[in-house]
Amino acid sequence: MARTPTADSSGWFSFDQRDMTVFIFVMSLSGLQYAVTEVIPEFDVGPLEVGVGDFIFIPIVLVLLFRTFWAALAVPMGEVVFEDILLGDFNGLGVMEDLLLVSTCFFFAALLFRDPDNRVQLALVVLIAEGLNEFLAMFVDIGKFYIGVEELEAVPGLPESIIVLEGVDFVVQMVVTGIIFGVIPALYLYPKLHGKIEPLMGMDPYRGTPGGSMLEGVSPKAALLVLVAFPLAFAFEAAEEAGYGLNVVWEPEFMDVYGENFILVPIAVAALVALAVWGIAKRRTA
């Protein structure tokens, strides 16, 4: 029997065959967009690198459609599997920041989404998912720099410059990733997919609460999850910067051996996995 997880039920964390299918499907599509954005060049504007961070509309729309914690966790796992590992740039502790922050922020944003027909609410949820993740990651990066540079205060103005640069980068990412490649395409894609893709995965479309307030999705447990994820992410990054020897590194240098065209491999693998899961889900539903 199909089910629709709600913010007030254990469906968010239950795990069965449908959840496994959704997890692999979201992971492969998220990995695909991460690999594609890796190909797109960045441009230097002074000390800043401006480029397409992520096509965030793909993973956030999928999380809002399937509404499980495992769908949110699959988003950073897509980067780990199809970008870090396949491109040979995996760091055991380094990936924990994204695993904790991205999955938690996407999950928290999905909890706030109460009315699927409310386009303003949809836009706000996308901005919250990206903004909360970027905001927490910004403080992790600042703290990581303070830990990694012992003589930070020896350079006049350096601490202030770091904070300013991180703040400017936050604004740029919110405009480029959050609005241009987040809100705008999500406003088109979510209504197109809502009610069509969920049944193929054995789930009922989320009907929500017409006119429901986003505040209804806020719960002490959800807030606690965010508050726990942030210090944990910082702790893992601090351990990496301090060089405690806990890192599990996988750097076979595929790119150096096979050239830049090797980046097409994770793109192809992610696309094939997504198509395979889609085909299996359609046959199972039929």
What does this protein structure show overall?
Helix 2 (57-66) packs across helix 6 (158-193) and helix 4 runs antiparallel to helix 5 (119-148). This protein has a two-stranded antiparallel ribbon. A two-stranded antiparallel sheet has the order 3-4. Helix content is 64%, strand content 3%. The chain has one domain. It has 286 residues and is mainly alpha-helical. It has helices at residues 17-39, 57-66, 69-85, 96-112, 119-148, 158-193, 220-242, 254-258, 264-285, and strands spanning 43-45, 48-50, 90-91, 249-250. The two termini are 14 Å apart.
Structural class: mainly alpha
Give a count of the beta strands, DSSP E runs of length 2 or more. Answer: 4
**What percent of residues adopt helix (DSSP H or I)?**
55-70%
Q: How many angstroms does the end-to-end distance come to? A: 14 Å
| pLDDT < 50 stretches | 1-10
List SSEs in N-to-C order.
HEEHHEHHHHEHH
Radius of gyration: 19 Å
Annotation field: number of helices: 9
The side-by-side strand order for the widest beta sheet comes to 1-2
Query: What's the number of structural domains?
Result: 1
Broad shape: globular
Strand fraction? under 5%
Q: Tell me the major beta sheet.
A: 2 strands, antiparallel
Mean pLDDT equals 81
